[in-house]
Design brief:
The complex is a heterodimer of chains A (533) and B (355).
Chain A: H1 2-11, E1 14-19, E2 22-26, H2 32-41, E3 49-57, E4 62-69, E5 77-84, E6 91-93, H3 102-113, E7 116-118, H4 157-160, E8 175-179, E9 191-197, E10 200-207, H5 215-219, H6 224-232, H7 239-254, H8 260-288, H9 292-313, E11 322-323, E12 326-327, H10 335-358, H11 361-367, H12 375-381, H13 385-390, H14 397-400, H15 421-443, E13 464-471, E14 476-483, E15 491-495, H16 498-508, H17 514-524, H18 528-531
Parallel strand pairs in A: 2-5, 6-7
Antiparallel strand pairs in A: 1-2, 3-4, 4-5, 8-9, 9-10, 11-12, 13-14, 14-15
Chain B: H1 4-18, H2 21-58, H3 74-84, H4 95-114, H5 130-138, H6 141-151, H7 155-186, H8 191-197, H9 203-206, H10 209-225, H11 237-240, H12 250-274, H13 288-296, H14 299-318, H15 326-354
The chains are: A alpha+beta (533), B mainly alpha (355).
């Protein structure tokens, strides 16, 4: 787009492009805040969605990349790059006051790279223990056990709540309840510390990192074929979609053509994954509200999808189906027949789900008028996916930046404007119907031919940066790869759609009751392994 | 019709031959106590099996299938498991209150259980104020729940206990008020009198519209009294892990579990005694042959089938509805059920006076 380019040129000298929709702007760190404010507030550009903040260790310097996207031109992305040569005491200006999502991203970079963000008071570690020595994503990090012993004691709760200058984030007389890490309805090992006044929630402080596996760090020592497996372990409920994204970014880097057959099958698998994920999300939300029967119904319908996966992919949850260049093996002879049987079944069951739960007076009373998330807030928090769409923010990557075979299919982006819990709930159920429509259009038209393009045994991405985003079941999942031409990536960064969702919970659950907190968690539908990468 | 009191009198006479009066009284009490305890435990097993099976069918599952044919011995196995489990000692609890809580809960439910008339004469004590006794003794249970939550020294349990205190005390009101309708109708608090009065027409039909309203209100509030979904806030497992009994283990937990199931039975039993004719068979005025045939079905089967219908309703609701929130729960009681019950009493009064 001309206009974006011109405006960017005005501001900075070095504008380059990764692809024709992704611009990179390099600026000095003093001009960082100014540039970001300009991009955010410029009326023509409106780059007001902070997708992610990426930290990179360039060995001689530390770089921070601000990944901005526009709500005006959602297909375009600007990567604002800045760096500092000060390795002893690296610091940047904080932008936590511009975006609600920025605070957590900055904490993550501080945790991994030891970069300080000036003015951000809350510079606790996000994933690692507060007493961890060193910063693991630095290239000169010493992983030996002498530096960081295997701890035999739990981290003290008081350590978790101390911000910069030793103050606690809680007041002295706060009634603090530990909600997790072992709690039946935090959807994994999420640790929320909530301040209660009777039943009413005053404050929430999420603690992450109980199942942090360092996947991004592991990626740096894995070849491209190997690290595909890791992507499915992020958001395990939309594993195939994540893996699809990873394949796309590598294929884009190699300039590889994917056969149409593979693209079609990939999308069918993606949409099935999305249906399975939404069904589970629906069931879990119902269970959070105390309706166990609905959960079992969701699992029952999901089972059909799992059996389709089992036949074609050989696995149920981690399908391991996409590979670089296509899909790992051809579809099972039963694939089309089973899916065609599944579509009318699912439609019938959707009606039953609506009858059982949506029209239930208690469920209605619980979901309506609770957990309002405005569009501005959703954008500021970066709450993408069904959550953002329920608030009226059109952010479906499948629509705004169609990848793979999505340009051939016709479907509706479900948008609602109220932003209440009920809307988030309804968006999920309606998206199941849209996914069914997509599958219906593709299933009879799977082109014949090869299903995979042969690649070399050792894949080396050319030097440079690669970026791809896909629509996961919970929101925008994007992958940033910085390559130096080796067979291993230099830095991989996954954008987790779930961190903003937990952040959203932090702001919408204030003033509601404990029962609502659990239900709101269900309606945002975060998955903890996606947060704890 | 067969009288159970004949059998009981025989036993009593038999004992009188060999023992003195006070001794006989003691043995009578002892036998009745044993009988009630055993019946209580066996009934709990049956109820657990029923609940698991019915819930499974609501959820398109089979439920327990492995232990015995159709898994009928599953609750027995569960019972053995829970008896053998270690009772974990927890630091920082108020040991005396912690243990006392269980007994209060179980004793309250046992005492109520004892007052149910199972058949003509098959009745531990026929109080002349039986309905009042039901209401008063069953509300001791809430003390146990509050103590359990308080003594556990845990933030979740105290929230659960507070919720439960608010819930049980509120719902007792509409529960009591709807039973008052029956008292107005029959003019007696004595359970045997109330049941005998329903020889031809059950109370629910005899009292017309007000009793039907009262029956519905009683079913809702009685269901809330038992702490079961959609009113299971005190133990809301997705919010408070297990609510007031989080810290209990082994047989201590087992007692809470037992009391919960038996309370469900007791609520259903009171509903069927006061509203659906108790052990009285279905009689229709004028249909003598029909009444004769109905009389041949033992009264205890009548009572249990009525109780089963009420329990089935409770299970149906429990496994369909999501949970209420605490403010909605209290709103339902204080703004809807309570006013309805109060107006209903006036309505009943006019019904009795003018119709």
């Amino acid at each position: 787009m001309k206009i974006i380019e011109e405006l960017l040129m005005q501001f900075s000298l070095s504008v380059s492009k990764i692809t024709d929709k992704i611009y990179t702007v390099s600026i000095s760190k003093e001009k960082l805040r100014q540039t970001v404010v300009f991009l955010k507030n410029n009326e023509k550009l409106l780059f007001d969605f902070l997708v992610d903040i990426i930290g990179v260790d360039y060995e001689d310097s530390f770089g921070v990349i601000y990944n901005l996207s526009s709500t005006q031109f959602p297909a375009y992305t600007v990567l604002v790059k800045t760096h500092t040569n000060d390795r002893k005491n690296p610091h940047f200006d904080s932008i936590f006051d511009l975006w609600q999502s920025a605070g957590l991203y900055e904490r993550e970079i501080h945790d991994f790279f030891g970069i300080k963000f000036i003015n951000n008071v809350d510079m606790r570690r996000l994933f690692l223990r507060q007493d961890w020595c060193g910063y693991p994503f630095r290239k000169d990090y010493d992983p030996s056990l002498e530096v960081n012993h295997i701890p035999f004691s739990n981290e003290k709760l008081t350590d978790m709540e101390k911000i910069n200058d030793g103050d606690s984030i809680f007041e002295k007389n706060d009634f603090v309840v530990n909600f997790g890490p072992q709690h039946p309805s935090t959807h994994g090992v999420l640790h929320l510390r909530i301040v209660l006044d009777g039943e009413i929630i005053k404050k929430i402080d999420p603690n992450f990192g109980y199942i942090h596996r360092g996947i991004e760090k592991m990626c740096e020592t894995y070849t491209y074929q190997q690290l595909l497996h890791l992507t499915e372990r992020l958001d395990y409920l939309s594993g195939s979609i994540n893996r699809h994204g990873m394949c796309l970014v590598v294929e884009k880097g190699l300039g590889l053509e994917v056969p149409d057959r593979a693209s079609y099958v990939r999308i069918i698998i993606d949409e099935l994954t999305r249906i399975a994920s939404h069904l589970l999300g629906w069931g879990c939300m119902a269970m959070d509200m105390g309706s166990i029967t609905a959960f079992i119904y969701g699992m029952r319908d999901r089972e059909n999808i799992m059996s389709i996966f089992e036949e074609t992919c050989g696995a149920r949850l981690m399908a391991n189906y996409n590979v670089i260049g296509g899909i790992i093996n051809d579809i099972h002879p039963n694939f089309q027949r089973k899916i065609k049987r599944f579509i009318p079944y699912m439609r019938k069951m959707l009606k039953e789900h609506h009858f059982l739960f949506t029209n239930n007076p208690i469920a209605n009373g619980r979901m309506k008028n609770v957990g309002y998330l405005s569009k501005e807030q959703a954008i500021s928090l970066g709450a993408t996916g069904p959550t953002g769409r329920a608030s009226g923010w059109s952010n479906d990557v499948r629509k705004i930046d169609p990848y793979s075979a999505y340009k051939y299919v016709d479907f509706k982006e479900i948008l609602r404007t109220d932003g209440l819990t009920f809307d988030r709930y309804i968006v999920r159920l309606d998206e199941i119907e849209e996914s069914l429509k997509i599958i219906e259009q593709l299933i009879d038209n799977i082109p014949s031919g090869a299903y995979v393009t042969k690649t070399k045994t050792i894949i080396k991405l050319p030097e440079g940066e690669f970026y791809q985003r896909v629509e996961g079941a919970r929101g925008e999942f994007s992958i940033f790869i910085c390559s130096r031409g080796d067979k291993y990536p230099y830095r991989v960064k996954f954008r987790s759609p779930c961190i903003p969702l937990v952040n959203a919970l932090k702001s919408i659950a204030i003033g509601t009751k404990i029962a609502d907190l659990v239900m709101l968690g269900g309606s945002l539908d975060y998955v903890v392994p996606c947060i704890d990468r | 019709m067969f009288h159970f009191s004949i059998v009981l009198n025989c036993v009593d006479k038999f004992l009188h031959v060999y023992f003195t009066d006070s001794c006989v009284l003691f043995i009578d009490f002892f036998l009745v106590g044993i009988f009630i305890l055993v019946f209580y435990a066996v009934l709990a097993l049956v109820l657990i099996y029923l609940e698991r099976k019915i819930c499974a069918f609501f959820q398109c599952r089979l439920g327990p299938m492995r232990v015995g044919p159709f898994g009928i011995f599953q609750p027995v196995a569960d019972m053995i498991k829970i008896l053998l489990k270690e009772v974990i000692k927890i630091n920082g609890v108020d040991v005396f209150l912690f243990r006392l809580a269980i007994y209060l809960v179980i004793i309250a439910s046992m005492c109520t259980f004892g007052a149910i008339p199972f058949d003509r004469g098959l009745h531990v004590i026929d109080f002349n104020m039986g309905v009042f006794y039901f209401l008063s003794i069953s509300s001791i249970g809430v003390v146990g729940i509050l103590l359990a939550g308080w003594a556990s020294n845990n933030k979740y349990t105290i929230i659960g206990a507070m919720r439960s205190g608010a819930q049980l005390i509120s719902y007792e009101l509409s529960c009591g008020l709807s039973l008052m309708i029956i008292v107005i109708l029959s003019g007696s608090l004595k359970l045997s009198v109330i049941v005998e009065q329903q020889f031809y027409v059950w109370n629910i039909f005899r009292g017309g519209i007000p009793t039907i309203i009262a029956f519905i209100v009683y079913l809702i509030s009685g269901h809330a009294e038992t702490n079961r979904g959609p009113f299971d806030l005190p133990e809301a497992e997705s919010e408070l892990t297990a609510g007031y009994h989080t810290e209990y283990s082994g047989i201590q937990f087992g007692f809470f579990y037992l009391a919960e199931y038996l309370n469900m039975f007791i609520v259903a039993a009171i509903a069927s005694t006061l509203f659906l004719g108790g052990w009285m068979p279905l009689h229709i005025i004028g249909w003598d042959l029909f009444n004769e045939i109905m009389d041949h079905i033992p009264p205890i089967i009548w009572l249990f089938s009525k109780i089963f219908v009420c329990i089935f309703l409770a299970l149906w609701v429990r496994w369909t509805m999501p949970r209420l929130r605490i403010d909605q729960l209290l709103k339902l009681e204080w703004k809807i059920l309570m006013p309805i019950s109060l107006v209903n009493i006036l309505f009943m009064f006019f019904w009795m006076m003018y119709l």
